[in-house]
Amino acid sequence: MDASPLKALPPELRNLVYEYLLCGQEGIHLRIEDCLRPEDKHGEPLPCNLSITDTCKELREESLALLYGRNSFIIHTNAIDYYYCQDSDGYKLFREKIRSSGFTLRGWLQSLGENARLLTVVDLALGLWETHRVRREVEAVHYVLSAIKHFHGIMYDSPTKFTVSLRLNWNADSWCDIGKDLHVKLDLSSLEACQSAVERALVDGDSKLFAELRAADFKIREQELTRCRAKLYDLLGRLEANGIVRAGT
């Protein structure tokens, strides 16, 4: 490191260089497939410039501490997609995806070695839960909680703060073109709190959607009434112009 120009900079400025190269404002997004061991990996590399971590041991230690400590890692499993399978194997596929994702994530942490202890936030994104496609909502909550419990069992002794997140989407009928999207992040430290958060989000989302549906319905009716009124005035004007009715009648 003695030959590196960065050595001449104070630690505060070096950290600014590391932050510019290695930190993203929206976190680092990875597919679960990208978390396979390097020899098996076929996914995309980290979306940041890692060249500085290969210069020397001192710079590597400093930069990796900031890379893993300052970034939030969002791991996209998209496991919830398997729930929408139309055949009877939907839940089986969903459960297998959760299981394989858990083992992949554990292998990824092991491949990081000591760097795994530098991680501060890892978010496991289950994917998009489209409520209008859910066949039985109570069962769907059970499926999501089974995923949370599985990850909790793998990560319970990890010093890293793990969360599970999913996006709840409410899609109304096409005639009013209303949709609501809600991001729910669940803390793995309390399964009871996770269940309450999912159920509360579903209730709140439904309430907000119905309120907007009522507002949209009123607006559509008001627009239709305005169009009808305009047509009546136009017809009345034509009748007056042809002498069929007198003005003011």
Structure notes:
- By secondary structure, the chain is α/β, with parallel strands linked by helices.
- It has one domain.
- It has 5 helices and 5 strands.
- It has helices at 11-22, 57-70, 90-112, 137-155, 191-241, and strands at 28-31, 72-76, 121-130, 161-171, 179-187.
- It has a 5-stranded mixed beta sheet with strand order 1-2-3-4-5.
- Strand 4 (161-171) and strand 5 (179-187) form a beta hairpin.
- The N and C termini lie far apart (96 Å).
- Residues 38-45 and 172-179 have low confidence and may be disordered.
Q: Decide which structural class fits the backbone.
A: alpha/beta
Inertia-based shape: elongated
The N- and C-terminal alpha carbons lie at a distance of: 96 Å
Average pLDDT for all residues: 70
The percent of residues in helical segments reads 40-55%
Number of helices: 5
Q: Give a quick account of the main beta sheet: strands, pairing sense, barrel closure.
A: 5 strands, mixed
Rg over C-alpha atoms, rounded to the nearest angstrom: 28 Å
H-E order: HEHEHEHEEH
What proportion strand?
Answer: 15-25%
Low-confidence stretches: 38-45, 172-179
Strand order of the largest sheet: 1-2-3-4-5
Could you give the count of β-strands? Answer: 5
**Tally of discrete structural domains:** 1
InterPro entries: AN11006-like
